[in-house]
Write a structure and sequence with these properties.
Length: 117
């Protein structure tokens, strides 16, 4: 625990993320509990563990961010002008559809509105 401030500074310098640095330091402590340390010089070993865990953390974070960007939906809503233009276009399509004679109108309606082939 005496090396905590040093390890936190090191992890923060590597990650530039306060919460990530804290997680990495906690994981380094867990690694130290699982493996007996040389009581005379634990600092270099702990620093190496923090560096390795920081690399893994950055790699994992990068993969997660790429996955999230790949599946993210746009939260942007259409503007009033865009919505009005879309509505106007739909009205023109409906007017053109109404102007068609049978059987053409029925064919278009069945195909594009009811997905029949």
């Amino acid at each position: 625990m005496a090396h905590g401030p040093f390890l936190r500074r090191l992890a923060y310098a590597l990650l530039e993320d306060e919460h990530g640095a804290e997680d990495v330091v906690q994981d380094a402590y867990l690694a130290a509990l699982r493996r007996p340390l040389d009581p005379r010089s634990p600092r270099p070993w702990l620093a190496a563990v923090v560096r390795n865990l920081s690399r893994r953390w950055r790699r994992t974070r990068g993969r997660r961010e790429r996955r999230e960007r790949a599946v993210a939906r746009s939260e942007r809503l259409p503007s009033t002008a865009e919505a009005a233009a879309q509505l106007e276009l739909q009205e023109k399509v409906l007017a053109a559809l109404r102007a068609l004679r049978e059987p053409y109108r029925r064919t278009v309606v069945l195909r594009f509105y009811f997905d029949r082939t």
